[in-house]
Amino acid sequence: MISFDIRFVVISLVMIAFLPDGGLTAQNNIKQYTEGLNIKFDLLESKKLDRAIDLLNQADVTLTNANQLYDQLSFVEKKERMTKDYQKALKTLVEASEKYKEAHSLIYSVYKAKADAFWKQMSKINHRAAGMDKAHYYEGKALKSYNRGLIRREQVMESDRYEYAVIIMNDAYKLEKLAIRDEGRAVQICVDYPVEYNYGWDDDKTLEEIVAIMRDPAINEPPEDIFATVDKESKVDSVLFKEIIFKVQIAAHTLPLSDEYLRTLYKGDLKIDMIFEDDWFKYSIGRYLSYDEAEATRRECNIKKAFVVAYQSGIHIPTQEAIKILEKKMSIQ
User: Fold this and answer.
1) Which of 139, 176, 215, 314 could form a disulfide with 223 if both were Cys (CB 3.0 to 4.6 A apart)?
2) Is 77 in contact with 83 (CB distance < 8 Å)?
3) Distances (CA, A) of 311 to 119, 240, 326, 332
């Protein structure tokens, strides 16, 4: 019993620590999101940023109210998570999360629009803006963090556990701020073009490091929306339940990947299947009754890290085991 009490004390401290940038009485300001940047905003952009700061302050108040509602619950209520008061605290927490999401989306959209305007202008004058790999790099990082943050926000809404929702919310908040930071850095580089500066940013990369990253297909992710939202309940394609099937796995990630991104990896005509298993989104092509057919597709798909996988009755089994089963079956016939 004592150990559970300690657990809830620790969780309460985590919730207090989560209050963004300073605690209960802190007021948000745009300087938190423009640090290290020298970017001018027009009237419309300034109004959006002011609205975002107002939403952040509202979110802080709503989060404080949610934590107070939760702290007033008894140990049993927190453990069972069934009472109206528990649900009210959880609902208030979700409201706070949505306000943070809206605020950060506004700030991110202001930066994104500025970057898009730059690239559009370069395209209009048929200028490729040579040497802008660093801006592309930061935009790619920003979009990755932003989409991960959106997924975390969805998980907050779906959670029925207050303590777990707080942890996810904290994660989403950090991801969103990181996305804004990196998108802002991309905008700064665009604004300064064609002059290149040594900005002295934390965690900054040299141009040589970025070029190396861009050239490495194992870690290079293009500056497009590479993530998607999918139904995790659809774990295995029903076709795989018939017999031993060989497929060619072309990608896997702990987050779902969009069709657009997958098509940058695989440019062939085969349908790309998604299987969610062991907390991974696994993407594969082809459905073959023999290993040789699958292996031929693996070679033809021209994806370095692609490999053949096997399923029996919808369950992933080692490829060599599947081959042995088929060989034994053939010897009996």
Assistant:
1) 139
2) yes
3) 45, 7, 12, 21
pTM: 0.61
Angle subtended at Cα 168 by Cα 47 and Cα 261, rounded to the nearest 5 degrees: 75
The angle subtended at Cα 148 by Cα 47 and Cα 179, nearest 5°, is 40
Q: Are 42 and 143 part of one and the same domain?
A: yes
- Is residue 280 situated within a structural domain? yes
Give 42-82 pLDDT, tens digit per residue. Answer: 999 999 999 999 999 999 999 999 999 999 999 999 989 89
Question: Is 257 domain-assigned?
Answer: yes
* Cβ atoms < 10 Å from Cβ of 59: 24
Quote the DSSP letter at residue 235.
Answer: -
For 185-212, letters b (16+ CB in 10 Å) and e give: bbbbbbbebeeeeeeebeeebeeeebee
Q: Which of 5-19, 71-85, 240-254 has the highest mean pLDDT?
A: 71-85
What whole-number distance in Å separates Cα of residue 254 and Cα of residue 79?
30
Cβ contact 301:248 at 8 Å:
yes
Distance of CA 116 to the CA centre of its chain: 21
Beta strands in 111-262 (DSSP E): 245-253
3-class DSSP state of 148 = helix
Task: Name every residue whose Cβ is closer than 8 Å to that of residue 40 and which is 6 or more positions away in sequence.
Answer: none
Long-range contacts of 15-19, Cβ-Cβ distance < 8 Å, separation of 24 or more: 15/67, 15/70, 15/166, 16/67, 18/63, 18/166, 18/169, 18/170, 18/173, 19/60, 19/63, 19/64
By the 8 A CB rule, do 188 and 199 touch?
yes
Look up the domain containing 257 and give its range. Answer: 238-332
Cα separation, 284 vs 306, in Å, equals: 9
| Residue 228 banded pLDDT, cuts 50, 70, 90 | very low
- CA dist., res. 170 & res. 68, Å (int): 17
Number of domains in the chain: 2
Same domain, 292 and 202: no
